[in-house]
């Protein structure tokens, strides 16, 4: 029932070999293993064999990111994604492909970001709390809690594992200015990989220090700005000018890193990649925090009130919910 492995690695003889093999009805593979105490049978289903075949793409995500420099958001209605599993699955597929979404018709009440997060999976806490209110404050512990321009960044690179999904529910956005900014960091990374391989190599091979400090905490972590998989393909982005710590590499390497950072920031802020959208009250902005850099134009708090409420989830929560829904709606068996 647990679907977890019971056989210990040392329970399997190192010289194990089949005594008899045959194709079973339905395309499965029957194997009888040679053992001193008699043949032990195994039956492997054709679907299981296909799913676990050798030399396949090892990526956990079968939905590939959009190749657009400025991907369009997937839009959805709150009532649909909250009440219809088919609509939620369709939304999740679009969100994974495009990296960000606008959900409309969200009730203008506090706590709705948490409600949507629970619809997907388990909401993750952070040093900013189980949820956070993004508004101008008198004594901010983050640049986000000011009215200042907020450069494009990913959240929490000072954590060993930054969160994968961020929900920002707009409760009020009446002030002059304050448009939300986004850029697809994976699109930028792929551009660098194709056109400027030296910059790509520098940003993917150097683990940079990030730090967050306040009166109650001090977080430190190291990440490359462009994080790659085993095939050297860009998979995650880690960048925050607000929380990057002083560089501590060799002097010669620091000069190269600084130059590569300047090129990366120039690209994400260029019209080719930068996206601008000013959410209205009742909209939720949902984006992949490890792909889409986000920021904000400066706003004038004396002209109106601006208040967002947000929370985080891990990437694994998003993928688990999507895969479980797909298995149910597409009648896919456990594999």
From TrEMBL:
Transmembrane segments annotated in the record for this chain: none
Listed InterPro entries: AlphaKG_dependent_hydroxylases, TauD-like_sf, TauD/TfdA-like
Cofactor(s) it depends on: Fe(2+)
Natural source organism: Kushneria aurantia
Pfam families: TauD
Protein name per the record: TauD/TfdA family dioxygenase
UniProt cross-references to CDD domains, sorted A to Z: CAS_like
Taxonomic superkingdom: Bacteria
